[in-house]
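Please decode residue identities from the backbone states below.
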């Protein structure tokens, strides 16, 4: 079975569209699936069947595009990727990798015992990250706070769930973070994590209803003036918690009528003497899922 990716894109002649990418071709399915939310609702209780139906719709669609044509900076004059979400909330999990725990302890001004405790606790750290409409698309600009001195991207595997909290697929995420602000006081986490252009996703959602972590590698590269200044990678096998743990707690005493996206934490952390600058280019690649490239701006 071919890998299917649910995508959103902009066509200057038609506006925002929903598509299915199969190989290098994007099939326009907007007439049958007008939004990501519509597909996620349709998949409730029948994920595998909904994916099979979507594939049939895609292969019969007449509107077709070449995926590479969308790899440009977003503008009203050019076809480009949109973030693969619309009305979904985006949440995030923290301290899910041992490296993340160590980095949080290093940055914390009080020694970081709180991060060691949450790493070993039964309940995971979960926090709201972004509204779907404010998520930055591929090739768009991600933000670093003007009142922060230590800003980094956080490359993460993102889970996409329907309203029943059933896993529908995966995408690539960038959880931008102001580490000095959170390091000053953990209660400042919302300011360190939730601000303009602090979350990017894309290009597409790889549709896969399994509840097992994909055995893959997450890679981060940061370029400055055309030269790579940082690179790192980590295997998803290093994630401490299971998908069931994270989604179970996210859905507990909560509901997401349009589905929800969950960033699952980072294990790639630039050194403490590195901070992003305006104009830097971040590229996050997850094997078999996709590559997300963004340029940095000050917000």
């Amino acid at each position: 079975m071919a890998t299917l990716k649910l995508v959103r894109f902009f066509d200057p002649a038609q506006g925002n569209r929903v598509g299915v990418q199969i190989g290098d071709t994007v099939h326009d399915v907007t007439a049958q699936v007008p939004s990501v939310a519509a597909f996620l609702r349709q998949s409730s209780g029948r994920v595998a069947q909904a994916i099979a139906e979507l594939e049939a719709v895609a292969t019969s669609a007449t509107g077709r595009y070449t995926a590479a044509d969308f790899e440009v900076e977003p503008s009203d004059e050019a076809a480009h990727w949109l973030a693969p979400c619309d009305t979904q909330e985006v949440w995030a999990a923290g301290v899910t990798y041992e490296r993340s725990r160590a980095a949080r302890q290093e940055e914390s001004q009080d020694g970081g015992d709180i991060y060691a405790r949450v790493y070993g606790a039964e309940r995971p750290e979960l926090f709201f990250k972004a509204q779907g409409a404010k998520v930055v698309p591929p090739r768009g600009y991600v933000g670093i706070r003007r009142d922060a001195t230590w800003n980094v991207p956080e490359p993460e595997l993102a889970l996409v769930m329907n309203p029943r909290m059933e896993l529908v697929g995966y995408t690539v995420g960038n959880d931008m973070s102001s580490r000095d602000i959170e390091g000053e006081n953990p209660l400042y986490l919302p300011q360190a994590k939730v601000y303009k252009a602090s979350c990017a996703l894309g290009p597409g959602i790889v549709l896969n209803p399994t509840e097992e972590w994909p055995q893959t590698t997450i890679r981060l590269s940061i370029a400055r003036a055309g030269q790579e200044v940082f690179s790192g990678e980590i295997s998803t096998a290093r994630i401490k918690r299971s998908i069931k743990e994270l989604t179970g707690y996210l859905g507990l005493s909560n509901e997401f009528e349009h589905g929800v996206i969950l960033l699952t934490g980072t294990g790639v952390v630039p050194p403490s003497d590195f901070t992003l600058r305006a104009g830097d280019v971040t590229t996050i690649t997850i094997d078999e899922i996709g590559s997300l490239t963004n340029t940095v701006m000050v917000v």
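Observation: The two ends are 43 Å apart (CA to CA).
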